């Protein structure tokens, strides 16, 4: 909670009880089998018990959950259980009462613990405890949280710090899943990995002999967007298919305008069909989004999940809503409606490990440099006599290397329109540029004389259309494990993708400008991590 508080959403803008239930009926009718009331804080809404009771009557709805700060839980839970509440998540970021008061700007730690014990007493198993881990704040409590599972049927879920809305992004604050897992394993080496449920957002582990378990939600380091089947409706009735995206569709306005069920289904289906395989528009969000305006004193969201069966992204998010089929798009093309303009979004992946996750676009965000910045005052590719020389990396240790680079191509209005509508005589410029970027990353050592050959494990090239500047924004990310970095691979990938766009469009305009070819971030190596401010 910010020290200055937050601006509250006017009551007239919030969904009414009947509007919430109308939307819930619609989603359940279309196959949603789980609804979670989240926040903000849902338990301060005076009609929350009545809402749960009426949700329970919806045929086909199997799970009704709530995510709460726990302050009012002990008082309300007996009523909520009686009317049908079946799952509980409690947000708790510290086990230190004084630190709790610092984080939430109010007392109440004992009430949260009372709520946890009340949930256990009433038979909820597991009771999920959500803990957002932040370096310098609570990462030293990992083992204390894990120890809670010894005698209590808890699922303590450690969540990677995520840079959206009110969170002020700082790479130094994030504690990765692997770092957290290593910390726990040092204390309990016998820690066991549990099988993952399909579409699960958490990686679950259990300490042998303990009643409960721990889980990790790897929202940033190993995101799960490709199998995510969650939808979110905000307190004021906006549908979000991705928590990270700026794009919202107001279902409230359509409801109040008298939209029919079929019209609502078309609107929802179109939004779902635009859901992406990674955090939606993340790098653009950090650059352009207005200050966050969460409502803490209002019921902030109705979280809807479980679209029909738990399917993969391609089948789940781009096929059926009953009575409305979302138009299929080519595998490399995800079409989206931006604010008043039509955009095409392209993404490609080359990954040597079929089970590994995509690189998180969160690494594209602007941020301050982190880690030691060990720069040299001498050129490393020049010997003592000033002649070009290749660096010997034979004695350097193999480490995980990741680099992200960007480029911008200013096309001008005519070429931009043709690219946007895919009407160039040469073909689809975005797809060709994308493939060229992937190929360039793999051939970097053949193009840059003193660059080492790197066995890339992953290459991702993304292109976004920016209608305000008539530009294409390119992001290229590369990953490898070895003794040398992959900055040149990422930069070459972005540059060649930009050059390819120029080549595809030069017959239409010679006034095309390539600009802002730059390294966004790199991790791994002796010189430390770099993140462009």
Describe, in plain words, how this protein is organized in 3D.
The protein has 533 residues and is α+β, with helices and mostly antiparallel strands. It folds into 2 domains: 12-274, Alpha-Beta Barrel (TIM Barrel), CATH 3.20.20.70; 399-531, Alpha-Beta Plaits (2-Layer Sandwich). The protein contains 15 helices and 21 strands. The protein has helices at residues 17-29, 48-56, 73-83, 97-104, 109-121, 142-147, 177-187, 251-256, 261-273, 282-288, 313-316, 413-420, 429-442, 444-447, 487-505, and strands at 34-38, 63-68, 87-91, 127-133, 154-160, 192-193, 203-206, 213-217, 230-234, 238-240, 249-250, 301-305, 320-321, 324-325, 333-337, 342-351, 399-410, 456-466, 471-482, 513-523, 530-531. A hairpin with an 8-residue loop joins strand 10 and strand 11. Helix 2 runs parallel beside helix 3. The protein is globular. The two termini are 25 Å apart. Residues 279-377 have low confidence and may be disordered.
């Amino acid at each position: 909670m910010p020290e200055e508080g937050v601006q509250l959403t006017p009551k007239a803008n919030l969904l009414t009880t009947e509007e919430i239930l109308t939307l819930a009926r619609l989603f359940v009718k279309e196959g949603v089998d789980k609804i979670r009331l989240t926040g903000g804080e849902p338990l301060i809404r005076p009609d929350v018990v009545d809402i749960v009771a009426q949700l329970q009557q919806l045929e086909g709805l199997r799970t009704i959950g709530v995510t709460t700060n726990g302050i009012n839980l002990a008082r309300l839970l007996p009523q909520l259980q009686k009317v049908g509440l079946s799952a509980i998540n409690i947000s708790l970021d510290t086990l230190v009462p004084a630190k709790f008061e610092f984080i939430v700007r109010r007392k109440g730690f004992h009430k949260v613990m009372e709520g946890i014990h009340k949930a256990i007493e009433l038979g909820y198993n597991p009771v999920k405890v959500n803990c957002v881990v932040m370096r310098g704040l609570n990462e030293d409590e990992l083992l204390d949280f894990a120890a809670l599972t010894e005698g209590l049927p808890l699922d303590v879920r450690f969540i990677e710090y995520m840079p959206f809305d009110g969170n002020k992004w700082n790479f130094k604050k994030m504690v990765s899943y692997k770092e957290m897992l290593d910390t726990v394993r040092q204390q309990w080496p016998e820690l066991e990995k549990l099988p993952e449920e399909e579409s699960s957002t958490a990686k679950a582990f259990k300490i042998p002999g303990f009643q409960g378990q721990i889980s990790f939600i790897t929202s940033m380091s190993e995101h799960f967007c490709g199998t995510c089947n969650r939808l979110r409706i905000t307190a004021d009735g906006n549908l979000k298919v991705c928590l990270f995206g700026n794009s919202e569709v107001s279902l409230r306005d359509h409801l109040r305008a008298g939209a029919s069920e079929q019209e609502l289904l078309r609107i929802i289906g179109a939004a779902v069909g635009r859901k992406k395989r990674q955090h939606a528009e993340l790098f653009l969000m950090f650059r352009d989004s207005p200050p966050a305006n969460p409502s803490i004193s209002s019921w902030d969201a109705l979280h809807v999940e479980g679209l029909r069966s738990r399917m993969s992204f391609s089948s789940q998010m781009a096929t059926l809503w009953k009575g409305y089929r979302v138009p299929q798009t080519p595998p490399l093309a995800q079409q989206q409606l931006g604010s008043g303009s039509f955009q095409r979004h392209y993404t490609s992946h080359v990954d040597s490990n079929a089970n590994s996750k995509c690189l998180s676009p969160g690494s594209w965000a602007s941020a301050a440099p982190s880690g030691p910045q060990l720069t040299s005052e001498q050129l490393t590719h020049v010997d003592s006599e000033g002649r070009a020389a290749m660096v010997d990396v034979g004695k350097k240790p193999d480490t995980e290397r990741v680099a992200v680079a960007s480029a911008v191509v200013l096309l001008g209005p005519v070429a931009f329109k043709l690219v946007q509508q895919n009407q160039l005589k040469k073909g689809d410029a975005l797809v060709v540029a994308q493939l060229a970027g992937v190929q360039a990353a793999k051939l970097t050592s053949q193009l840059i004389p003193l660059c080492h050959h790197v066995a890339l494990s992953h290459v991702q090239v993304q292109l976004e259309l920016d209608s305000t500047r008539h530009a294409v924004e390119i992001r290229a990310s590369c990953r490898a494990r070895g003794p040398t970095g992959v900055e040149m691979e990422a930069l070459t990938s972005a540059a060649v993708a930009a050059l390819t766009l120029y080549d595809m469009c030069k017959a239409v305009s010679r006034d095309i400008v390539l600009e802002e070819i730059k390294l966004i971030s790199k991790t791994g190596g002796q010189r430390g991590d770099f993140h462009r401010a």
